[in-house]
């Protein structure tokens, strides 16, 4: 699978998963906006289409929201200078439904009766449209197509007296996946949904409290990791310190297992596990379950690399960079004609002929979505002289769409939803194809197996078993079939 910032290899432009988004907030630091900018740099892999920062300087809020990468839009000193204050929150976004217009770029900000509030959201609300319709009947006017705006309206219409109670009442009405950071004149608030589907961590930078989607965002600024927020936990940061609340009924955690497979950065620690270590264990499990007589193991860079290392070590085969990635191709590269378009795969990847010519090659990738990119990668390796090409996938077959903040193709367009593994092997033209089992994936993350009665993770993209109600999506095949609702990511 191509990385989330990859230029599409074919007209099947979404032959990959798009990452969700990243959130970051800091409270009590003079250079707050600059720190948030650095944190968002570290979280750029979670969303590349737009970014925003809201700061507060003790008297007013300052808002900067731009379409594009952090490095392209928040590099000018004038932008950072406009974001004065000792507290700020930020967001980096990949849009799903609703488009990538500036009105949907987060954090979303509103002036309420008792002051301003900004909210940034990672995840997707599965009842946002239902709640929006109720609010609209009461006179609410929505200015974006983002489900995140629903949170602002719920806070605004709450009859509770203080912001803690109003925010609590609002999040209790939400369903789906959400990790939130919010900023008011006096507080920074963080909250995870009761199942803890999306990550959110707490950090400390010389006494300034930080909320971030991943620990890699703490590392870039030299902050100390304190802990993961617990599922269903809400933390409130003020000048007096930090308080923790649990506004939801306790539920068993259902953290997104695909964070370990692909979404999180390899150098992050997620729910107590180092992502790179987990991916190597995934590769080892893959080699045990799907052995193959071969000469070398080659990752599909960059996302397949850690699993390929684990596979090679377990199988006692040489690990080689048989495919080299070009990191300097822009997302907006124009392919003017068919002859150029057919070369698309080489914009990002090129076979290292010296390593693979005459060899039996095992290609390791993290997943197969539509299969068109895998098809082109395999052909490229064959054209470079590979004697055999075997593909091993470091996750189970992806058979269902995600409704929790990950932009996936419609179920009918997922290769594994309409083909057997043998048919998929024929389609991508490999000598053999093997996927990691769901049980093997659970073993790689430290479980003895999957509890089918009460799964330990959200694995709906593999199993089709969704851990929450899907009120807005009943009968829908994918988030994108509902043109009225945009993901909060």
Explain the overall architecture.
This is Amidophosphoribosyltransferase. One of its GO terms (biological process) is 'de novo' IMP biosynthetic process. It catalyses: 5-phospho-beta-D-ribosylamine + L-glutamate + diphosphate = 5-phospho-alpha-D-ribose 1-diphosphate + L-glutamine + H2O. Catalyzes the formation of phosphoribosylamine from phosphoribosylpyrophosphate (PRPP) and glutamine. It holds the Pfam family GATase_7. A hairpin with a 2-residue loop joins strand 5 (108-112) and strand 6 (115-125). Helix content is 27%, strand content 24%. Helix 4 crosses helix 5 (148-157), helix 9 (275-289) packs across helix 10 and helix 9 (275-289) crosses helix 17 (438-444). Mean pLDDT is 89; it is low at 1-13, 331-335 and 477-489. With 489 residues, it is of the alpha+beta class. The strands form 6 sheets. Strands 3-2-4-1-10-9-11 form a 7-stranded antiparallel beta sheet. It folds into 2 domains: 21-254, Glutamine Phosphoribosylpyrophosphate, subunit 1, domain 1; 270-465, Rossmann fold.
């Amino acid at each position: 699978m191509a990385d989330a910032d990859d230029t599409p290899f074919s007209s099947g432009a979404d032959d990959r998963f798009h990452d969700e988004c990243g959130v970051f907030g800091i409270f009590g630091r003079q250079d707050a906006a600059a720190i948030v900018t650095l944190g968002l740099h570290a979280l750029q892999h979670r969303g590349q289409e737009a970014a925003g920062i809201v700061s507060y300087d003790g008297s007013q809020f300052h808002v900067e929201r731009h379409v594009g990468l952090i490095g392209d839009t928040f590099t000018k000193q004038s932008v950072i200078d406009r974001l004065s204050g000792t507290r700020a929150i930020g967001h980096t976004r990949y849009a799903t439904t609703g488009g990538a217009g500036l009105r949907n770029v987060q954090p979303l900000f509103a002036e309420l009766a008792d002051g301003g509030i900004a909210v940034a959201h990672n995840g997707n609300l599965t009842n946002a449209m239902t709640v929006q319709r109720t609010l609209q009947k009461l006179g609410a006017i929505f200015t974006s197509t983002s489900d995140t705006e629903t949170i602002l309206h719920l806070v605004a219409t709450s009859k509770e007296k203080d912001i803690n109670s109003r925010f609590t009442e609002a999040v209790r009405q939400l369903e789906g996946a959400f990790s939130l950071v919010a900023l008011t004149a006096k507080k920074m608030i963080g909250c995870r949904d009761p199942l803890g589907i999306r990550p959110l961590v707490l950090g400390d930078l010389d006494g300034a409290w930080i909320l971030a989607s991943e620990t890699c965002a703490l590392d870039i600024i030299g902050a100390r990791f304190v802990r993961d927020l617990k599922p269903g936990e809400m933390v409130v940061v003020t000048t007096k310190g930090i308080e923790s609340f649990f506004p939801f009924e306790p539920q068993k955690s259902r953290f997104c297992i695909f964070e370990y497979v692909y979404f999180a950065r390899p150098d992050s620690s997620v729910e107590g596990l180092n992502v790179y270590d987990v991916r190597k264990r995934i590769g080892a499990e893959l080699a045990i379950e799907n052995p193959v007589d071969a000469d070398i193991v080659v990752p599909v860079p960059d996302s397949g690399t850690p699993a390929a290392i684990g596979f090679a070590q377990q199988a006692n085969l040489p690990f080689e960079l048989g495919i080299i990635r070009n990191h300097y191709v822009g997302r907006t590269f124009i392919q003017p004609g068919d002859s150029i378009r057919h070369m698309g795969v080489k914009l990002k990847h090129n076979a290292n002929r010296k390593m693979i010519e005459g060899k039996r090659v095992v290609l390791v990738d993290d997943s197969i979505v539509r299969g068109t990119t895998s098809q082109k990668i395999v052909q490229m390796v064959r054209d470079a002289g590979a004697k055999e090409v075997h593909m091993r996938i470091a996750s189970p077959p992806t058979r269902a769409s995600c409704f929790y903040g990950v932009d996936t193709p419609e179920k009918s367009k997922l290769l594994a939803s309409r083909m057997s593994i043998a048919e998929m092997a024929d389609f991508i033209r490999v000598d053999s194809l093997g996927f990691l089992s769901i049980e093997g994936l659970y073993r790689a993350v430290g479980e003895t197996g999957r509890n089918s009665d009460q799964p330990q993770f959200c694995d709906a993209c593999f199993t089709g078993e969704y851990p929450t109600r899907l009120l807005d999506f009943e009968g829908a095949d994918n988030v994108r079939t509902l043109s009225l609702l945009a993901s909060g990511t």
